[in-house]
Amino acid sequence: MSDILVGTSAWTDKTLLQTDWYPKEAKSAEDRLRYYASQFPITEVDSSYYFPPSEKNSELWVERTPKSFTFNVKAFSSMTGHPTKADAIYKDLEVPVAKKNLYPEDLKPEVIDAIWERFTSALWPLHEAGKLGALLFQFPPWFVIGKKNRNYILDCARRAAPMRICVEFRNKTWMSQDNRDETLSFLEGHGLAYVCVDMPQGFTSSIPPVVAATTDLAVVRMHGRN
Q1: Is 42 helix (H, G, I), strand (E, B) or coil?
Q2: Does domain 7-222 have CATH number 3.20.20.410?
């Protein structure tokens, strides 16, 4: 049987910090990560969705965790088509200053290229150390099934290589009864891992809890049902 790794989304989540799970002496980010990594074999970096990590971040994560520890890293918001706060984008890149939230169509192609290059470069220490599991691409609710968006997923995989990606949908068209087999075949055919989700149902963004693996890596995310 393959390894099953269980962990949480972030080791500094506010709700986790509000509990007494961490020892009282674990007060710094370093202490908390070291303790977390002594209890769990994997974590998901959630902060990278809001602000791109630095190479120094990755180096410290490598240094502070056991050799076998794994980090799954959430893709930056502008890489998945979500709105991105202007002040979250690298300061030396030219972006429209009049807008508070920026979408990919607001950014010049060279800016988008630079974001991708810097984001993946920052994760290279994790990749080299064998501690990078997958980049999580969680697409927005308006990311519907279609040729254009399938091609975008393939472009994400190409840009991220040699790092692997896993794909999470937030629009039910991908996993409807009519499209489910097509979606899973598409992912399997291109060696892309499907992210199974357990989440509240009844919304446009609700994805049914389909248990499926499209690669040797299977990812399950439990969102909660509240």
Answers
A1: strand
A2: yes
